[in-house]
């Protein structure tokens, strides 16, 4: 604190994502809409993680097996995501440290290293879903063999390097465009599917049936695929991309306000996309849930009239593959950035930007390559790898959530004005406890079926 009682914050081993941090100008205006436009972007990169290929099987499968029952699970997961991302953005904007930097600073070198390993595995697990989704999309659209598709995903990193040189706003614009593609594709397919609107709306009301064994397992899968740890690190870092005066509390509050608006709007889009996925599964595939365990079977089902009914067509299948490719590309960009944030923040490893991103991507591609080479063109093997990768996400989520809630609730770290209010603290603690218990259960369920 300075002599006036204001908190003075210093960088933890330099700013997070130094080539992006504080590079985007914002207008000096009181216009709400101009400010919202200027601050829009980081929320889109965060939202990508909540509608990546890892969500697709669980959401569509949930609809195909249980109809609209699990709509309430998507709603609750999205509200939790909004709360956590608000805290992540606040940590970054107020302290000018991302979650990895703050965790390392307040836990020490040894524990920080252990937490880095866990988080790195979680990011690899997340990236595995993007690699698999991208490779399968290339196979479905262009007939490219899965092994070649996996190898091609490595070059996504080169695209990110080029985009970074063009400016962070260019990355945001491309991500938002790809999100729009995904949204439009699934909105069109759901309209064509003609869902039962009253049943759909009823699904947002939690039912006791969700607690039954099969429904609960699927619900846990949806939660695990929706709330992912790497997004908390990403959100706490890219929230610092706008230029603002850290020593001016009013300016900090202004930045936090519009960062929160941006995050909540984009996460609302992610919520709608996940709802569309479940609605599509329910409207077209209800009763065929056990037949739709892979991306290829979903692709084929969309043009099979015996499953999808009269609306089945090759166009629906092609649009599905296009959306899958867009989702994989989007998640590649954000996953690679998250890997860089975690590596720099936890172990203070300073290597060239291109090397950091190649290493992060390379580590994620290796297990997919091994699986593809060993099992050949067996997509089911890749989908099993995707499911098992969720174990690491389940393990890493509490490791991310507990420090986040603690740091943002601390007056010493956040200052009196910006520390979490009592209601936020209670909500954050409840979410952490519940999700930790659910994720432990998910780990046990997954390991029991290996």
Helix/strand-derived class?
mainly alpha
Q: What is the fold-level CATH name, i.e. the topology?
A: Amino acid/polyamine transporter I
Distance from first to last alpha carbon? 53 Å
Q: Would you state the CATH class? A: Mainly Alpha
- The unreliable regions are 1-11
**Strands, total number:** 0
Q: Give the overall average pLDDT.
A: 82
Overall description:
The termini are far apart. This protein has a single domain (32-448), classed as Amino acid/polyamine transporter I, CATH 1.20.1740.10. By secondary structure, the protein is mainly alpha-helical. The relative contact order is 0.20. Helix 4 (71-95) crosses helix 12 (230-238), helix 6 packs across helix 17 and helix 18 runs antiparallel to helix 20. It is globular and about 65 Å long. The protein has 20 helices and no strands. Residues 1-11 have low confidence and may be disordered.
Quick structural gist:
Helices cover 75% and strands 0% of the residues.
Q: Which helices and strands, and how do they pair?
A:
Blueprint: H1 32-39, H2 42-48, H3 53-66, H4 71-95, H5 99-107, H6 109-142, H7 146-153, H8 156-166, H9 168-193, H10 197-202, H11 213-226, H12 230-238, H13 249-285, H14 295-301, H15 305-308, H16 314-347, H17 353-375, H18 379-409, H19 411-414, H20 422-448
Helix pairs in contact: 2-9, 2-12, 2-13, 3-11, 3-13, 4-11, 4-12, 4-13, 4-18, 5-6, 5-16, 6-7, 6-16, 6-17, 6-18, 7-17, 8-9, 9-13, 9-16, 11-20, 12-16, 14-16, 16-17, 17-18, 18-20
